[in-house]
Design goal:
With 430 residues, the protein is an alpha+beta fold. Among the domains are: 86 residues, RRM (RNA recognition motif) domain (Alpha-Beta Plaits), CATH 3.30.70; 139 residues, no CATH class. Helices cover 25% and strands 16% of the residues. The chain has a five-stranded antiparallel sheet. β2 and β3 form a beta hairpin. The radius of gyration is 47 Å and the shape is flat. The termini are far apart. It holds the Pfam family zf-CCHC_4. This is Zinc knuckle CX2CX4HX4C domain-containing protein. InterPro entries: At4g02000-like, Zn_knuckle_CX2CX4HX4C.
Length: 430
């Protein structure tokens, strides 16, 4: 039975894919007649709400349960969001209320282990999505746009070079190094990231505008693609001069758009900012929200002992001489207050000496009126007390047994020395 239930390749027939079966089977009769549905009829049916296809931008394997738990913790949905796998690193998720759907689709970028979770609406017409998600939604910052070009047309034209424009914000944001404008775009995962945007007017010199990304997922500093780091790009052996991308592309978290979810774990923060390099100590946010700056990370160097001098304790050691006490004398007067008397050094020494004579005994020992109580007895556990009592009783019995033979031996020796006394004792009474 077991051998007959095995198909080619050693797999069970229940595990064989339907496409593989269709290649080997010959369909006939009703199996070849299609059930045709009219387009107008299909349009009348209610749409499947809040259904999306999802894919993690990574080449590594992971558990769907781990992905589901991480995303539920990030989304914090009001109702349950269902997950089910339809392929390798391809999932279909469905929300059950409009609030959860808007948060999932509009408030990304969502990260799982530092990698982006790409989502795309799915109509549910097939079991598996035919269009695989390949875009990462993110907010970008275009810095130092000249005032003449700060309009929606120019801003969207600049942002379209980075990705598909979703929304734009014409309000400039002021920061330490200047102003920037924010645009939400969909980044193509198959294209390298852009660092600068060239802008030129006919007949004038070309200028370069810097682009920064808010909450950028894991990316490669060598090729600029998202989904891996430079240590995983090819052999991972790249010179420092070959790394054309870096953490300077990532915007400071303090200047992210309000409402953008922050990096939840240290691992995601390290992947987003350091991109595989040495992680920064601490779990604080970016400057302006309690972040650890370079000043906080400076290494403490202890002071050498030989260079430090002892602290001056008295005025004589400080070279000030004797400090006059006239300002410290009590000059206040009242009817009930005794007049203050001058205190001299000799009188103070006299009082101290008298106190010593009163407090010292004949042999120079300190005499106190208070009696020092004896120390409390040491605590002995009840189990040890029982052992001590048993040992004491055992020792007493052994000593008594030793004393009895000694007494008998002494009586025999006395009878041997005075036999007449013994005979008298042995005589019966008359």
């Amino acid at each position: 039975m077991e051998e007959s239930s095995k198909a080619a390749g050693g797999r069970s027939r229940r595990e064989v894919d339907v496409d593989d079966l269709l290649k080997n089977l010959n369909l006939h009769g009703e199996e070849l007649h299609d059930v045709v549905l009219g387009k107008d009829e299909v349009k009348k049916w209610p749409e499947v709400k809040w259904l999306a296809a999802a894919k993690v931008l990574t080449g590594k394997s992971f558990s769907m349960e781990s992905l589901k738990k991480s995303m539920h913790a990030a989304w914090n949905p009001a109702r349950d969001v269902s997950f089910h796998a339809v392929g390798e690193n391809l999932f279909v998720l469905q929300a059950h209320c409009l609030g959860d759907w808007n948060r999932i689709m509009l408030e990304g970028t969502w990260l799982f282990r530092g990698c982006a979770l790409m989502v795309k609406p799915f109509d549910g017409a097939t079991m598996a999505p035919t269009v695989i998600p390949a875009g990462v939604q993110a907010w970008i910052q275009i810095h130092k746009i000249p005032p003449l070009f700060r309009n929606k047309e120019v801003l969207n034209q600049l942002a379209s070079r980075v990705g598909e424009v979703i929304a734009s914000d014409l309000t400039p944001v002021q920061m330490r190094t200047g102003e920037f404008h924010r645009v939400r775009v969909k980044l193509d995962s198959a294209k390298p990231l852009m660092c600068f945007m060239p802008l030129a007017v006919e007949g004038s010199q070309r200028m370069f505008l810097q682009i920064k990304y808010e909450k950028l997922p894991r990316y490669c500093e060598h090729c600029g693609l998202m989904g891996h780091i430079f240590l995983e790009c090819g052999t991972g052996e790249h010179a420092e001069s070959e790394l054309q991308y870096g953490p300077w592309m990532v915007a400071e978290e303090a200047y992210w758009r309000h409402g953008t979810p922050g990096l939840r774990t240290r691992g995601e923060r390290d992947m987003g900012r350091n991109n595989g390099r040495d992680p920064v100590d601490g779990r604080g946010r970016a400057p302006g929200r309690g972040a650890s700056t370079d000043r906080d990370r400076r290494k403490w160097i202890p002071k050498a002992r030989g260079n430090s001098k002892p602290r001056k304790r008295t005025s004589e050691e400080a070279g000030l001489g004797e400090v006059p006490t006239d300002d410290l004398d009590d000059t206040a007067a009242s009817p009930l207050k005794q007049p203050a008397t001058a205190v001299t050094h000799s009188s103070v020494e006299g009082r101290v000496g008298a106190r010593k004579k009163l407090d010292m005994g004949v042999e120079g020992e300190l005499v106190t009126n208070e009696t020092i109580p004896p120390p409390p007895p040491a605590y002995v556990p009840p189990k040890d007390l029982k052992k001590q009592k048993r040992a004491h009783a055992r020792n007493g019995a052994e000593t008594r047994e030793k004393e009895q033979p000694a007494q008998k031996g002494g009586m025999h020796s006395m009878n041997d020395k005075n036999p007449s006394a013994a005979s008298k004792e042995d005589r019966p009474a008359q």
